[in-house]
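Researcher: Next entry in the queue.
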Amino acid sequence: MAISFEGKENVTLDDLRWKNRIVLYFPSPDQNPKFEFDAIEEKLNERKIIFLSIGDVFTTNSKLVFTRDYLQVLQEKYSTEKGQGNWLLIGLDGGVKETKMGEPDWDFIFKTIDSMPMRQSEIRKIN
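Model: Structure for this entry, 127 residues:
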């Protein structure tokens, strides 16, 4: 993903608005998820998805830098009750499009994005 934030060391979701879709994942304390992005990397890139798993361990598919304090703010704003894992999809416009319990369901996420009007427009431009 070629996104330039020249001179900006710490990125926020506002910086990504209209550039990327975001999947935020907040694993429950008993989960220690391992993510293999290789299998879905092309689909993530094609849909401009940045994935952030915010828990005891921070995982992302991007090279962007987020401060620990900012990740804490995201966790407080978007995670559900302690002890339950959840994820949410944020669209290009910065709005929350989907919120679900459990681990991210990538097939569902890709289908949801592909049904969105802006994604339909992107697909038409590609073809």
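Model: The chain has a mean pLDDT of 87.
Researcher: Noted, moving on.
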